[in-house]
Specification:
Oligomer: single chain
Largest sheet: 7 strands, mixed
CATH topology of the largest domain: Quinone Oxidoreductase, Chain A, domain 1
Low-confidence stretches: none
Number of strands: 15
Distance between the termini: 23 Å
Helix content: 25-40%
Strand content: 25-35%
Bound molecules: NADP nicotinamide-adenine-dinucleotide phosphate
CATH class of the largest domain: Alpha Beta
Number of domains: 2
Radius of gyration: 20 Å
Shape: globular
Order of helices and strands: EEEHEEEEHHEHEHEHEHEHEHHEHEH
CATH superfamily of the largest domain: Medium-chain alcohol dehydrogenases, catalytic domain
Length: 331
């Protein structure tokens, strides 16, 4: 079968990606073939294409970790799905494609009332934030949460999940536009980044401390976060959008009696089938009850894949960006 997909042949840069026609292999017994409607784009796609991701796949590969679509074929051993089911899947790469094969363990049925574009973007952002904040960070009503990089893909999902649990959310972002996006997802308090420096940015808040800090930025933001953590607070290490990794001062961790938690959703989700499904079902439940709306992505046709990837790389994007195929357009 011939399909169009995006392919990375070397680790030079995202510029060396190409969109072209390829054959797709036969299904193995536990796999589903999904006719992709939408595929979320994540920071990890950019890092993987540049050979900088923790879990970089071997070359050549097709980026794309999260898709929504319709089941087109099932392997001989697959029990829980039928052809034509509407699904959401966490892929082992390969999502920037018209069709993708996915192990059925990492597929859930899509809620009928959840549109394909929202569904494609729930797996990584909302799965990550649900796992980080609810399972690991143990947020509770009234907690004061500071979200760094709050207008980004995982940042907005963190805002929504915290608000769904009754927390007070302070969002940090680098422009008024980005901050108003955070407000539309429920942030209670907005802080504009000053000189990419956390201490300067938070100075107007006085001696405020936070029960939970959700750090997507890394570098000096992580180091400085320890000054703003409440006694027995939780610092969630989510990612390194700044490209820098901090060396933490362990004396501050002791003095604050705080927890520093490393969160890595992908391998966790892949290694633990039931919990993965619990997390995604938890996200579905919040959506079903109207407690979260899921971030509406900005959509790009799959052939136009480079534009959104550059926007993310150049820090121009707001919220989630997503690719769609012709199958999505036709519906
Ligand atoms: N732990 C996990 O399992 C997991 C899951 C998903 C993503 N991540 C990681 O989390 C991080 C954020 O992912 P995302 O999808 O939310 O990315 P994104 O949509 O591109 O957002 C990243 C945000 O970081 C901020 N930022 C601050 N300094 C930056 C810099 N020097 N360069 C670029 N951005 C900078 C930007 O906001 P401002 O301009 O407002 O500062 C931007 O909105 C990435 O490192 C990603 O790999 C981790």
């Amino acid at each position: 079968m011939k399909i169009n997909l995006v392919k990375q042949n070397d680790f030079n840069s995202i510029e060396s990606l190409e969109f072209s026609e390829h054959d797709i292999d036969d299904l193995s017994e536990n796999e589903l073939l999904i006719n992709v409607h939408c595929c979320g784009i994540s920071f990890a796609d950019i890092l993987a294409c540049e050979g900088k991701y923790q879990d970089t796949p071997p070359l050549p590969f097709t980026p794309g970790l999260e898709v929504s679509g319709i089941v087109e074929a099932i392997g001989s051993n697959v029990k829980d799905f039928n052809v034509n089911d509407e699904v959401v899947a966490l892929c082992n790469w390969g999502g920037f494609s018209e069709k993708v094969k996915v192990d059925s363990k990492f597929v859930v049925k899509k809620l009928k009332k959840m549109p394909f574009d929202l569904a494609a973007c729930m797996t990584i952002n909302y799965g990550t934030s649900y796992y980080a904040l609810i399972d690991r960070g143990k947020i509770k009503p009234g907690d004061k949460v500071l979200v760094l990089g709050a207008s980004g893909g995982i940042g907005l999902s963190a805002i929504e999940i915290c608000k769904a649990r009754g927390c007070h959310v302070t969002a940090l972002a680098s422009s008024e536009n980005k901050l108003s996006e955070c407000k539309s997802y429920g942030a209670d308090e907005l802080v504009l980044t000053k000189n990419d420096n956390l201490k300067e940015s938070l100075a107007p808040l006085g001696r405020r401390k936070f029960d939970v800090i959700y750090d997507t930025v890394g570098g000096s933001y992580t180091t400085d976060s320890l000054s703003f953590i409440e006694w027995e607070g939780r610092l969630l290490i989510m990612g390194f959008a700044s490209g820098d990794i901090s060396s933490l001062q362990t004396n501050k961790i002791l003095l604050k009696g705080c927890d520093v938690l490393g969160i890595f959703w992908g391998p966790f989700a892949r290694g633990n089938k039931h919990f993965n499904l619990d997390v995604l079902n938890g996200v579905n439940d919040l959506f079903n009850k109207g407690l979260i709306k899921l971030s509406k992505p900005t959509m790009f046709h799959i052939a136009d894949f480079l534009r959104p990837m550059k926007e993310i790389k150049e820090r121009q994007s707001i919220g989630k960006l997503c690719l769609y195929t012709d199958s999505f357009k036709r519906r």
